[in-house]
Amino acid sequence: MDFTSKHCVPCEGGIDPYKLTQAQEYLKAVEGWEILEGDTLKLQRKFEFKDFKEAMGFVNKVADLANSEDHHPNINIHSYKKVNITLYTHAIGGLSENDYIMAAKINQLV
């Protein structure tokens, strides 16, 4: 499944988030990401860069991508060169195709 050729579609709710089995199936298409389980399923990937400047450059690229796709991740910068990105569709409280599209496109930035 190639999510990189797709674009995020605005979601205002009204659809069900993916169940764990569907989320796991789609996970195979986004290398390096993991599913965080809890009340809300989320995708997360941890990145580590050589220094702060490189980490911030990556974060800025993710921000540009998020604005162009109108789907915004949670970004955590820590230990000066580590970046954790968490994706889920806020409007439905879980995972949707948009999250996998963003994960695949973020992978292309590395």
The class by helix and strand makeup works out as alpha+beta
Query: What's the number of domains?
Result: 1
Please work out how many helical segments DSSP would assign: 3
CATH topology: Gyrase A, domain 2
Task: Provide a descriptive summary of the structure in words.
Keywords: Lyase. It comes from Candidatus Daviesbacteria bacterium RIFCSPHIGHO2_02_FULL_36_13. InterPro entries: PCD_sf, Pterin_deHydtase. By secondary structure, the protein is an alpha+beta fold. The chain has one domain: Gyrase A, domain 2. It has a four-stranded antiparallel β-sheet. Helix 2 packs antiparallel against helix 3. It starts with 19 loop residues before the first helix and ends with a helix. The model has no long low-confidence stretch (mean pLDDT 96).
Write the layout of secondary structure elements.
Layout: H1 20-27, E1 34-36, E2 42-48, H2 52-69, E3 74-78, E4 82-87, H3 97-109
Antiparallel strand pairs: 1-2, 2-4, 3-4
Helix pairs in contact: 2-3
Concise overview:
GO terms for molecular function: 4-alpha-hydroxytetrahydrobiopterin dehydratase activity. The chain is of the alpha+beta class and 110 residues long. The protein is built from 3 helices and 4 strands.
Supply database-style keywords.
alpha+beta, four-stranded antiparallel beta sheet, Putative pterin-4-alpha-carbinolamine dehydratase, 110 residues, lyase, globular, PCD_sf
